[in-house]
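Researcher: Going back to the complex we discussed earlier. I've cleaned up the inputs and rechecked each line, so this should be the final set. Can you rerun the prediction on the complete assembly and write out the structure?
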Amino acid sequence: MAETARRELVDADVELESLELVHDLLEEWWPAVGEVPMQRRFAFETAVIEIAGNVVEHSRRLDGAPGRRFSLVLEADDRSLRARFEDNGLPAQVDLSTVTMASLDEEDGRGLALALVSLDRLEHLLVDGKNVWELECGRA
Amino acid sequence: MIEFDVRKEEGGTVVGPQGRLTMVSARAFRDTVTEVIERDGGTIVIDLAGTTFVDSSGLGALVACLKTARQAGGDLRIAAPTEQVTMVLGITNLDRVLRPRATVDEALRG
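Model: Rerun complete. Updated structure for the full complex:
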């Protein structure tokens, strides 16, 4: 695959149902990406859905205000799979260095840990007042 | 959207989520399984053969349902997980407590 395979979700509502749109976008993107080992595909997809869920949950927990929107760009080239989320929710305070996997009897607290172990790079940034998540992993 | 097939078998009740078990559907899944536990009790088998994707909310719902089943004096077992589900169960170590069985029959037998 010589070119970049790119798909974009623009200006989606920050709400639970939008996770289905993220799933649909992934399903539309994979055929354009070409061959990727199944385990790598599952890992990347899991990370993307976990971060999408985090965007929704974070917004709901902080203010639940209407008008919260997010966008998602998926890109793949010969070397890597990448995703970038942007949302206009309140700035999130995220310290990924403190994330650990929940213990076995807990019902919550696995999302970010799952995303971290599924990727080579996960970053949360604040850019022009927007929350930005960048996800990346090698495609092989 | 997800659908839940519920059927009585010899040895327990089988619940089969068809589709994605995620933050979107985790609440409906918990409600369905809780209803089955209250109605039937005993062994509940979650047939994951038709569950194409599970996220952390889906895993949390499985843990919650396991607790509910055991508190009611029964048990909850999972069967036939697909590849993505097997992967997330392994990463989170939840395969130690949910201990997936290869088939529904195996899960019903214990």
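Model: Worth noting: The beta strands of chain A are 5-13, 69-76, 80-87, 121-127, 130-138.
Researcher: Good, that matches what I expected from the previous run.
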